[in-house]
Amino acid sequence: MGITADEDDPFEEQREKADDPMKRLFFEYGGENRLAFVVGLLSSVVARVLDLLPPLLLALAIDAVFLENRAFDLWLVPEVWEPATKTGQLWLASGLIAFAFFGGAAFHWSRNWGWNSFAQNIQHAVRTDTYDKMQRLNMDFFAGKQTGEMMSVLSNDVNRLERFLNDGMNSAFRLSVMVVGIAVILFVTNWQLALVALVPLPLIMYFTYKFVQIIQPKYADVRSSVGKVNSRLENNLGGIQVIKTSNTENFESDRVEGVSKDYFDANWDAVETRIKFFPGLRVIAGVGFVVTFTVGGLWVITPGGFGPFTGTLSPGDFVLFILYTQRFIWPMAQFGQIINMYQRARASSARIFGLMDEPSRITEDPDADELVVDEGHVVYDDVTFGYDEGETIVEDVSFTVEGGETLALVGPTGAGKSTVLKLLLRMYDVDEGTIEIDGQDLRDVTIPSLRRRIGYVSQDTFLFYGTVAENIAYGTFDADEESIVEAAKAAEAHEFIENLPEGYDTEVGERGVKLSGGQRQRISIARAILKDPDILVLDEATSDVDTETEMLIQRSLDRLTEDRTTFSIAHRLSTIKDAEQIVVLEDGRIAERGTHEELLENDDLYAHLWGVQAGEIDELPEEFIERAQRRQARTEADD
Question: Exposed site from 62, 97, 192, 501, fewest CB < 10 Å?
Answer without folding.
Answer: 501
